[in-house]
Amino acid sequence: MNKWWKSGAPWIWLHGGAVSISIIMVFGLLLLILVRGFSHFWPHPVAQITYTLPGSAPIEVIGELRRSETLTGQLMREAGAPIPEEQLFVTRHLFKLGNRDVTGRDFTYFIDDFMGEWRYPRDITVLERREWGDFLGQPVRLLENNRPLNLAADELWPEFRRRLERSTALVDDIRHIERNVIGRINHQLERVRLDRRRAELRDRLTPELEQQLIERREQLEAHYAELRHELDDLYAQSRRDTIVMRVAGGDEVDIRLDQIVKAWQPNAMSVFAKLGFYGKDFLDFIFGYPREANTEGGIFPAIFGTVVMVLVMSIIVTPFGVLAAIYLREYAKQGTLLKAIRISVYNLAGVPSIVFGVFGLGFFVYFLGGSIDRALFPEALPAPTFGTPGLFWASLTLALLTLPVVIVSTEEGLARIPSTIRQGSLALGATKSETLWKVVVPLATPAMMTGLILAIARAAGEVAPLMLVGVVKLAPTLPIDGNFPFLHLERKIMHLGFHIYDVGFQSPHAEAAEQLVYATALILVLLIVALNLTAIQIRNRLREKYRAEGD
Predict the structure, then answer these.
(1) DSSP 8-state assignment for residue 487
(2) Has residue 290 been placed in a domain?
């Protein structure tokens, strides 16, 4: 045994076991996110059940099974369930009932002992609505301008689908006009107001200029009035059709088709139909806009904001980090001061991220942003332009947060370049500057990319500092549009990390948001992996390029 310990084999097994456990934990977490995240988009069957509590009248339940759990009878009796004293264990099922506006809650537990036969009628329909969440029921009839249509039973569902497509197209046209066309007009009207205010501040508001501004404003307002008439007509057309749904218990509820995003009958769908629905629902989640306090709809603004912020951060941090590392390694005089600077850089990497957020809010937003507003945008005051949290300040704060990682990685890459390469370059007549920038720095490029990869991985998942410097719960517009300067660095953005926090901890409907949290976390992980793989591919190509040149 002593010989075995002295051989070092136990430490090898210990290290191998620790690495194995870490890998298992990582892959287990990823597997949990994958299973829970991807299951969010699958059209689960909807059951119809008769539920009868002792001493109560039977009630009808229509819902989608979310999960089942077994508890002790004692625990259920303490919770008020009518469970016999001799029963040791009880199984209960969590059902998604939907119909939040009808029943007041869309998730309820039901005890298995009091449930009747589980039936799956083919005509049970799930409606995803723009407000109030999902609606579950059975279609009864279609109304056009509040008059019922004379349709046979087998004609109701196809006609409903056809009219829903028409209504969805009209709603898309409305959203396009409101977000793009009217948004562009509002932007131009604001520019007219700012131009007039700027001329007043500079004492350049001549009668001719004021007349030009008035004419521009009148043209824009006339165009806006035309669009309002067009919108009113589209709204009237979209509100034409209504579907009457029978809910559990027999009541009927009218739902306008313009309030429905999509509809499906999961019990009547084949496997291939479910796969097609799954793919479309996943794409809608990726490219859609959030609704219902972020608990419904898609996450495209959050994905877009995360990607743009990371790209802007990378553009900022890379040159500063590389130049700082080159100076510290190649030009700075080695001594006590340089050691103190390096220690400060290492310590800066360990500062809690929320501290960077507080610093960014105070220095970048209030000091620098306020100064920029007073110097360049006085006509917009007191409304801030850059003196408020936004994309640029969020990216700059993340750049400061990840700067030590880039500096350390670049310094290590420069230190690994053999001195013989420097000496050979100098011996051939190159200057120190030429040796550095044409020989040493290109060879250290893979190390610089490694630092950037680590910076991207950390920046993409940060949440705490971003809440202070530019990330919000819901951003009405993207930071990129067709208005000059196209990329609006002053705008607030959404972020996948903050979206997960908001949905998971701030949502009023925790059960409805559970799968959405996993789905968003899955997209964040995939996004980070995609960004890292892109950077790794660039690093590998650079490494092969300079290795081939060296050979």
Answers:
(1) B
(2) no
The answer as to whether 183 is a domain residue is no
Q: How many percent of the chain have pLDDT more than 70?
A: 97
d(CA 490, CA 306): 15
Separation in Å, CA 149 to CA 30, 91, 99, 123, 397:
50, 45, 25, 18, 60
Residues 6 or more apart whose CB falls under 8 angstroms from that of 293 comprise 473, 507, 508
User: In this structure, is residue 456 part of a structural domain?
Assistant: yes
Residue 551 has pLDDT above 60, yes or no: no
Q: Which domain holds residue 426?
A: 300-500
Which residue, chain included where needed, has tokens 């898309």? 172
Q: What's the rounded mean pLDDT across residues 485-495? A: 88
Q: How many domains does the chain contain in total?
A: 2
Pairing of strands 125-129, 107-111: unpaired
User: Bridge partners of 115?
Assistant: 51
For the cut 80, the answer to whether the pLDDT of residue 197 exceeds it is yes
Question: For 369-401, how does the pLDDT look when each residue is reduced to its tens digit (9 = 90+)?
Answer: 999 999 999 888 888 989 999 999 999 999 999
Residue 291 sits at the vertex; the CA angle it makes with 289 and 293, to the nearest 5 degrees, is 125
Supply 26's token pair. 């990582």
Q: Are 471 and 301 in contact (CB under 8 A)?
A: no
Q: State how far Cα 55 lies from the chain centre.
A: 48
d(CA 459, CA 406): 12
Residue 141 structure tokens: 């009839």
291: Cα separation from own chain's centroid: 13
β partners of residue 382: none
Q: In what order do the strands lie in the sheet with 107-111?
A: 47-51, 59-72, 89-96, 107-111
Does any domain span residue 341? yes
Rounded to an integer, what distance in angstroms lies between the CA atom of residue 270 and that of residue 406? 52
Q: 493-527, pLDDT tens digit by residue?
A: 999 989 888 888 777 666 777 778 888 888 888 88
How big, in percent rounded to 5, are the helix, strand and coil portions of the chain? 65, 15, 25
- Give the pLDDT confidence score for residue 214 in this predicted structure: 92
Which among 336, 308, 288, 297 has a CA at the least distance from the CA of 531? 308
Provide the token pair at 433.
């500057």
Helix (H, G, I), strand (E, B) or coil at 510: helix
Looking at residue 267, what DSSP letter applies? Answer: G
pTM of the model: 0.87
